[in-house]
Design goal:
The chain has six helices and no strands. The protein is mainly α. The model has no long low-confidence stretch (mean pLDDT 95).
Amino acid sequence: MLKEQLDDVFLKNDEGYFDEDKVSAKFYSIIKQLSGEEAYELIDEAINYLLQSTDTEVIAYMLEFISSLYGIAGTNELTDLHEMKVSVIDRQVEIYGNQFTHNVLNNLKRELGTAT
């Protein structure tokens, strides 16, 4: 279910860009109804979505979304999948990310206490 919602979030405009206001509004509509437990349960789906993307902006937005899910869940305890995929996420950002994406990843790591 989350994949379909995220596919809807990441519709580009006619010029091939994301409308930041629309993306933010759609993310808000997803997260506003979540309990802490529901948010934690969606983290793995969000990580899987992130790992399927090669678009720099999508990766950055997804890292921010994952950060929000952890915040709503009220924990910095990584899911099992997240723990297993930390290096894969790092590699994804290394290959497809820009400086902003790297900054977003570093912020997420600091929030989760996994920064090195």
